Amino acid sequence: MNQKRINSVLEQMQKRGIDHLIISDPSSIDYLIDYQNQPGERMYVLLLSLDGSHTLFLNNLFYLDKELDLDIVWYSDTDDYVQILADHLQDANCIGVDKFWPAKFLLTLMSLINDESCFELGSICVDYVRMKKDEEEQKLMIKASQINDLAVDQMIELVGLGKYSEKEVSEKLADIYKSLGSDDNSFLPIVAYGKNCADNHHVGDAAMVKAGDSIIIDMGCLYHGYCSDMTRTVFYKEVSDEHRRVYELVKKANEAAEAMIKPGVKLCDIDKCARDIIKEGGFVAEFNHRLGHFIGRDVHEYGDVSANFDLEVEEGMVFSIEPGVYIQGDFGVRIEDLVLVTKDGCKVLNSYSKDLKIVG
To answer: Coil, strand, or helix at residue 58?
Structure first.
C-alpha cells in the first residue's frame, strides 16, 4: 500500500467533504495499493475512509500473491455482496463513487443506504493525485518514450518499403516493442495512408500506400505498467506544396504549444496557442479534437489540454501535445509528443525528428 498516495487522496476527499470513497478502477487501485486485478463483471472495490479504515472487497475466486496492508473482505458469487459493502457505509455522511463503477452496483447500493447519506462523483479525488507523476513514475514514462522513439524509426522504415498494407504494418509493432524491451502495445496502433489519414481513429485495413500519400503512425508501448504515445507523419515518395504547407503549419503549432508549457500556465491557453496558429493557416474545423490528453498508467487519463480545462499546469504532470489538420478525402497530418512539466518549463519526452520526411 502506498501510504503517501493514499494520504494525498484523503486530502482531496476532505477538501470536497467526502468521508468514504468507492474506487473501482483497477488502474487506480493498483496505483494506490500495488495490486493488479481484472474483475470482469464481479464487484471489485477499494473503500477509502477518512478515519483510516481502508477496505478491499474481493471475490473468492480472485488471487492474492502477497500480503496487503489493509482490511480485506472476501465474498462469494452467491453472497449479497452489495449489502456487505453497504454495511460498511451505514455511518457515512457523503459517499464518493468513481466514474467507472457500474450502475448495477451503484443503484443497488443507493437503495440500501440511509436517506441521510449523500452520493457524489468522487473520481477527481484520485484523478487529481494521478495527474502528477512522482520521480519513479517519471523515470518509467521517460523510458517508455525512449522505446517509442526507437520503434517509430523501424515503423517508418517498414512503410517506406511500400509493400505492406496498413494492417500488416500495424501487426508488426507488437514484436518490435518486445524486441526493444517493452511489454506490449499500450493501445492499438493507428497506421493510415493517404485519405485514411483524415480519419483520426482509423483502423488499419488492406490499403496500400501510393506516391504522394501522407502516412500517419500513432503508436504507444507499455513499459512496467506505464504508457507512451506519439504520432509522426511522413510522406511516400513525394509531397505536394500544399501538403508541405500543412505539415509545417502543424509542426509550428506543436512546437509553439510545447514552448509555452511551464507551471502556472493554463491548459486551455496551451490549446489556444496551437489552435490559433492552425486557424491563421486557414483551418478551423479541420483541427477537430483537443490538443492533448493526460497519460500514465492508462493512455487516456483524467485531464485535457483543451478549452474545457482552465486548470493550471503543475510540475510532474505528463500530457500529449498533438495538433492536427485533416482534409476529408485527401490526407491528414498529426504530430504528437508527450511532455513532462518541470520546475521551470517542460521536458519533451520524444526526441524523434519532426522535420518533414519523405520515404520510399
So the answer is: strand
Domains recognised in the chain with CATH numbers: 3-130 (3.40.350.10), 132-359 (3.90.230.10)
pLDDT tens-digit map of 13-44: 999 999 999 999 999 999 999 999 999 999 99
Collapsed DSSP state (helix, strand, coil) of residue 222: strand
Phi/psi region, residue 4 (left: phi>0; alpha: psi -120 to 50; beta: rest), is alpha
| Segments of 33-107 assigned E as strands | 45-49, 55-59, 71-75, 94-97
10 Å Cβ neighbour count for 340?
21
Q: Which whole-number Å values give the CA distances from 81 to 36, 70, 74, 87, 134, in the listed order?
A: 21, 19, 9, 10, 35
**Tens digits of residue pLDDT in 109-163:** 999 998 889 999 999 999 999 999 999 999 999 999 999 999 999 999 999 999 9
pTM, two decimals, is 0.95
Other C-beta atoms lying within 10 Å of the C-beta of residue 199: 14
